[in-house]
Amino acid sequence: MSNKIADFFGRIGQFLKEVKVELQKVSWLSKEELRDSTIIVLASTLVLSIVVAVFDFIMSKIISMVL
Predict the structure, then answer these.
(1) What is the Cα–Cα distance from 47 to 41, expressed in whole angstroms?
(2) CA 45 to each of CA 11, 40, 50: distance values in angstroms, whole numbers, following the listed order
(3) What is the distance between the alpha carbons of residues 37 and 30, in angstroms, rounded to a whole number?
(4) Please, which residues have CB within 8 angstroms of residue 29's CB and are 6 or more apart in sequence?
(5) 20 to 30 A Cα–Cα from 29, which one of 36, 49, 53, 65?
């Protein structure tokens, strides 16, 4: 039983070492790129929300006129 536990934690340790190696290979964004991308995502989300809200408002008015 003790050997299984040691093997389990050994595999976890090996996994974490491999994760560290892979994360060192990642090409991370600069602060400016991250900021610009965040602004684009937030603006796109805002615009899409407005479009959906307007469409929902128009459709609800049409449905209430029909019924």
Answers:
(1) 10
(2) 42, 8, 9
(3) 11
(4) 37
(5) 49
Neighbour tally for 51: CB within 10 Å: 10
The secondary structure of 21-44 as a DSSP string is HHHHH--PPPHHHHHHHHHHHHHH
| pLDDT (0 to 100) of residue 23 | 94
pLDDT tens figures, 24-39: 999 999 999 999 999 9
Domain ranges of the chain: 2-66
Q: How far apart are CA 42 and CA 52, in angstroms?
A: 15
pLDDT under 70 in the chain at which residues? 1-2
Using alpha carbons, list the distances in angstroms from residue 4 to 9, 14, 16, 36, 47: 9, 15, 18, 49, 55
